[in-house]
Amino acid sequence: DAFLPHCEVAKMVGQSNAGQPIALIATAGNNDGHHSHTDVGSFILHVNGESLICEMGRGRYSREYFRQSRYETPFTNSFGHSLPRIGGHLQAPGPEFGGRKQFYGTIVEHDFNTADKYVTIDMQNAYDVQNLTLARRTLRLNATSGEVALLDVFEFDGDPLEIEEALVTWSTVEVDGATARIIGTNAAIKLTIQEPTTAVFEATSLDQVSREHHKDSILTRLSIQLPRGTPRFHVHMQPLRR
Description:
Elements lengths: L1 E3 L4 E7 L5 E7 L1 E2 L12 E5 L2 E4 L31 E2 L17 E8 L4 E7 L9 E11 L5 E9 L6 E7 L2 E5 L2 E5 L4 E8 L6 E5 H6 L6 E8 L5 E9 L2
Antiparallel strand pairs: 1-2, 2-3, 3-5, 4-8, 5-6, 7-12, 8-9, 9-10, 10-11, 11-18, 12-17, 13-14, 14-15, 15-18, 16-17
């Protein structure tokens, strides 16, 4: 386990019931800087040597990749990360690339001292959404079973906005309503939406942008549209034998 307060990164480790090593890594920090992504609150779930929920990594370097249009690609903006879109808004970039202020998130709590490890991130300040007062993400890892829970909680000053959640992966995806499987070469996970009970997964292949950036694999974005006014999103992730 590790907590790096200056760069707002937390790593929790454990293993599945089958003995597969598991690492869960989450980040906060700010959305500014020359190589920054708008990715406050994003995370990686690494199972048995594979990042089944991933960080896209860098896109193809070009002049435009480091100009004002930098955040038009999912490789740098939050559409290509495992993050919610709130009221149709992605996270906002900082002043270096045209943002009106620095947008950021904060790890407000963490505990790695028991088998039920967790980290909590406040990420409302990463969005340029005026009436959003709270967007809090808690990631929990059961270090003995490898099961992971993600809980997002939202609050608004006034009418709630529409929220779309998302998870991204380079691996094969199978979707069946409120459940999905992400299947890698050496590992797999089952995802089950716990809240809201009416929500379902939708898988979208980011084929074109993956090829434009010369990637060997195709990124899949698993999106979940929450019913308007839903204040919570909870998904359970269970390692599977391969």
